[in-house]
Design goal:
single chain; alpha+beta; Cyclic Phosphodiesterase, Chain: A; 5-stranded antiparallel beta sheet; two-stranded antiparallel sheet; 4 helices; about 30% strand
């Protein structure tokens, strides 16, 4: 399940990725059209459980729409050994509440619970585990991205307000993950 991002944010991040690709070509850069904020990753699911999952998701509600502001750049687990390069998301408190409730209710259907706390972000690139400590272009490219992240610490990439989340199916292909929206769920009153 995921939240969509506004086109202005997608376009701004696409421009950033285009600027950075040559800096670190060894990174696996995310295609901008595939960007979203994951609320819950289900993994491989037996098609027979899909109706129960959909029924459970349709019951999830929040008193208010979710508000999100996109800005700042960072790394998981950190800049010294980066595995993921991300754009930050400042989200209203009900975002984490919705993700937690989703995790809790889907666990009743046998879906594995999340091991980590919910941390909203947009993945921009992934690095191979040894990239940050290898000598050569890859490490230098990552160093350049780390410098840029500090320079763009206060850069704003847009904002949005939404009252719906989406169930996506993902298929891994040589060009990266491909996402198909299966259904949209409204969790709050419509946004004006």
């Amino acid at each position: 399940m995921a939240l969509e991002i506004p086109n202005e944010t997608r376009e701004a991040l696409a421009a950033l990725i285009a600027q950075l690709k040559h800096t670190c070509p060894s990174a696996r850069w995310v295609r901008p059209e595939a960007m979203h904020i994951t609320l819950k990753f289900i993994g491989h699911t037996d098609p027979g459980t899909l109706p129960a999952i959909r029924h459970t998701l349709a019951k999830l509600k929040s008193p208010e729409p979710i508000e999100m502001h996109f800005g700042g750049l960072g790394f998981f687990p950190g800049e010294r050994r980066p595995r993921v390069f991300w754009c930050g998301v400042q989200a209203s408190a009900n975002t984490a509440q919705l993700a937690t409730e989703m995790d809790r209710t889907l666990a009743k259907l046998g879906v594995e619970t999340e091991a980590r706390a919910f941390a909203p972000h947009l993945t921009l690139a992934r690095f191979k585990e040894d990239s940050a400590h290898s000598r050569g272009k890859s490490a230098k490219g990552i160093e350049g991205i780390v410098r840029l992240a500090y320079e763009m610490e206060k850069k704003h990439f847009g904002a949005t307000r939404t009252s719906e989340f989406h169930l996506f199916e993902s298929k891994i292909k040589p060009t990266g993950a491909e996402y198909t929206r299966l259904e949209t769920f409204h969790f709050a009153e419509a946004v004006n």
